[in-house]
Amino acid sequence: MLFTERIKELRFQNRLPQRKLAAALDIDTATYCKIEKGERRVKKEQIAVLSKMFHVETNELLTLWLADKVTDVVSAEQRVATEVLSIAAENLKRIG
Q1: How does pLDDT run across 54-78, given as a tens digit for each residue?
Q2: What is the distance between the alpha carbons of residues 3 and 65, in angstroms, rounded to a whole number?
Q3: What is the pTM of this model?
């Protein structure tokens, strides 16, 4: 859970209470707590809000958020996950 670890670290660094972040995301504090625990995910649109609150580039948080999503998808297939990611990286080079 790279994303959740990073937002928790940023929250501590910025001395922001969970309730303030929850309010900025338009969710209740209990839901925000679940996000930090990895029990719930933020929506992609909420990443921009968090970036602004933490004074970090949106791409930093977006990268971690996407990495967690990809990990969730391939983690069930541990035997081939590394090869799958390698092939996906090559595909992205070709289409990018």
Answers
A1: 999 999 999 999 999 999 888 888 8
A2: 5
A3: 0.84
